[in-house]
Amino acid sequence: MTKVLIKIILSVIFTFIILFWGFVKFKQPQYKGNEELKGLLNNVEVYFDGVGVPHLLAENEYDAFVALGYVHAQDRLWQMEVLRRIASGRLSELFGEKTVEIDKFFKSLGIEEAAKVDIQKLDKSSDFYKLTEAYLNGVNQFISEGKTPIEYHLIGVEKEEFQIEDIYNVYGYMAFSFAMAHRTDPVLTDFKNKLGAKYLLDLNIDIDTMSTVIPGTEKSYATVSFALNKIYEDLPFPTFIGSNSWVLGGEKTKSGKVIFENDPHIAFSQPSVWYQAHVKTPEYESYGFHLGLVPFPVMAHNREIAYGITMFENDDIDFYEESVVPNDGNKYFYKGKELKFKTENKTIKVKGSESVSFEVKSSIHGPIINSVIEQVQVKNPIAMDWVYTKHPNRLLEVCYLNAHAKSLEEFESGLPLIHAPGLNIMYGDVKGNIAWWATAKLYERKNDANPKFILKGEKGEDDQLDFVPFTNNPQSVNPESNYVYSANNQSYALVEENSKKTKKYYHGYYLPEDRANRIVELVTSKNDFTKEEVMDMAMDVTSNTAL
Q1: Are 257 and 482 in contact (CB under 8 A)?
Q2: pLDDT digits over 19-32, tens only?
Q3: Helix (H), strand (E), coil (C) string for 467-526
Q4: How far apart, in whole angstroms, are the C-alpha atoms of residue 536 and residue 432?
Q5: What angle do CA 420, 423, 425 make, to 5 degrees?
Q6: What are the residues whose beta carbons fall under 8 Å from the beta carbon of 24, sequence distance 6 or more?
Q7: Residue 39 — left, alpha, or beta (φ > 0 → left; ψ -120 to 50 → alpha)?
Q8: Which run of H or E residues covers position 188?
Q9: What is the average pLDDT across 130-153?
Q10: Cα(437)–Cα(146) distance, rounded to whole angstroms?
Q11: What three-state secondary structure class fits 211?
Q12: Which pLDDT belongs to residue 491?
């Protein structure tokens, strides 16, 4: 190879690098200058601070949320794109055949169908709906007029406008990623059936310990968990994995003011799951943390209140094994009757390949998992009963109410609307109030069926019975201890029974109490905490169980 040819090759490589660098720089978000947005009543000033957080100053909320949608999209449009496609089963339009199994599973859950029903019932004249439309207006203006993120070019797909259904799909994915039953129930069922109930005692699971080993069983319920865990591993977005939070009342702080700490643990990703934004108008102000494509923050503070979340870890998914009618695979037994499985045909568009059509089969308990996931090696149909799709989704409205609340009473008023995912809502305000509420639709059964195992669907005796009133949820408002805390640990509610308060526990997948015990140990050690000391506590790595 001559020196001239080497120089030519190096020149071509160098030119390509320069062009690619220039292309990437051109695609970066705009943080200075002016943008003309349609539909604004007044100008909006947007200032990006040293760490890239946008501060939006507007004369009215409508303008503020149009601008928020625009800057959120310019920073996170590709993240929004991926997020909206998970729950709706449309990842394969981006990534091809390798995500077909993920799409089949999420399309079977009914998230899209539930969203359409809920959206039809929305009050289009409500403030939260109008501001959501304003936000989407800003997002879609960026799609039509802003720079196309480089990911769209690399994947080779066209941009599409976003609708309110996409926001509901984001909530649907968040709700499912919070759930733990699908990772646990099938495996525990295998333990019980193959090894015997006594092997579960070490897990502190109290069931009939006289059960015997079932030798030679060909069923492998654990394949349900294995298959769903594989879906999680292949998702292009991190899952929610736990959190810590504590709120100290004025009697435990040096300043006499409430100190609020909230630390949501989420698997690392780039970009971050959370999008910080500060929105200020004459009537409204909030500095909060948003999920992609969600106009109102999940965690935030204003001049009066602060609030955050941890995962409640309650059980909101149950699995039921259905009994098929002999010689008729289209029917199953339920409460002495023969019911027909509901079937629905669905189609997945696949990039670079033909579309995939499949059938979703459902019983009265929900979609049949082994009808859409080939890896599930269980003979009888396994149905998944999920609280999320059984009740109206009002999370968007709750996030609006929380962000606009200015008092304990205003904030608490929206919490009973949360049905799933289960959340511990943490709260503190400038008036000295502190609180914690476990928010979710909790239920009681008419028998002692343990929902940590796959239940029997035939007789209906293991069905959920009644959903309890929100007042019977675990919660604590201004306790005598002068602090509240949550670390995904099990909690209880004080419920009135027989004219006295009794502790009520609800089934769940609560995490070990080592973090919770450490928080209690620290917050009870003194009564004059400073903000700096609480910040140090957030970085504490001591484990009482590992000593």
Answers
A1: no
A2: 555 545 555 677 88
A3: ECCHHHCCEEECCCCCEEEECCCCCCEEEEECCEEEEECCCECCCCCHHHHHHHHHHCCC
A4: 22
A5: 135
A6: 150
A7: left
A8: helix 181-195
A9: 95
A10: 41
A11: coil
A12: 92
Strand ranges (DSSP E) for 3-79? 45-48, 54-57
Rounded to whole angstroms, the Cα distance separating 22 from 40 reads 33
pTM of the full predicted structure?
A: 0.88
User: Quick one: tokens of 162?
Assistant: 């976003």
- Check: CB of residue 148 under 8 Å from CB of residue 159: yes
What is the secondary structure of 264-296 as a DSSP string?
EEE---SS-S-EEEEEE-SS-EEEEEE-TT-SS
Single-letter code of the amino acid located at 476: S
Tell me which residue of 484, 445, 483, 444 sits closest to 461, measured CA to CA: 445
Of 184-193, 214-223, 265-274, least confident by mean pLDDT is 214-223
Calpha distance 285→278 (Å, rounded): 7
End-to-end CA distance of the chain: 66
pLDDT tens per residue, range 106-115:
899 999 999 9
pLDDT for the residue numbered 229: 63
CA distance 116 to 301: 31
Query: For 91-103, how does the pLDDT look when each residue is reduced to its tens digit (9 = 90+)?
Result: 999 999 989 988 9
**So what's the pLDDT on residue 223?**
56
Distance CA 318, CA 413 (A): 29
